[in-house]
Amino acid sequence: IIAIITSGGSSIRFGSNKLLEKIDNLTVIETTISKFIDLVDEIIIPAKNDIKEHILKSSLYCNKIKFVASGETRQKSVYNGLLECDNCDIVLIHDGARPFIDIETIKKTIELTKEKQAVVVGIKAIDTIKQIKDGKIIKTLDRAEIFRAQTPQAFKYDLIKKIHEKYQDNPNFTDDSSMVEKENIDVFYIEGSIKNKKITTKDDLS
Length: 206
Hints:
206 residues, globular, alpha/beta, 7-stranded mixed beta sheet, 6 helices, 11 strands, two-stranded antiparallel ribbon
């Protein structure tokens, strides 16, 4: 079981590298790593030099952690990580900027992926969802059928590697599960938590 933790983003909206901001005694990226370190056999981090150097100096650093070059896009970074997986059955793909993931949710994700090919953590929509176009509301969608995807997203390794290889030059996918859906392969979901937010602005740290 391998976790790929993405950390190559630009943090433009945050104003500085959000992964190096502190949450209590650990940085964001350290907090994220700490949630996975005891649950997986290896953590692969597509990272730029500043993040790599930071983690190498961290008390969390151990031989479970491996680095690969980050790509121009998140999709390419994940693919770089997949290429470094060795003897892998299940791979979890998680945003480095989601440090509030619950450990129990990670465990449930791993267990369900042992039975299924693809699993996504997320939460059901609670707001009324409107579809818009050209400044107008087209229709109101049934929120009972709307699911806000988060990470981790977990897959059988052979499946997600093959699909990434097929779509590696297609920039139109916003997450890994959407590529699997494109192949008409069932993707199952696990109810996560609203706390598992992706840090985008400084307000998200509180």
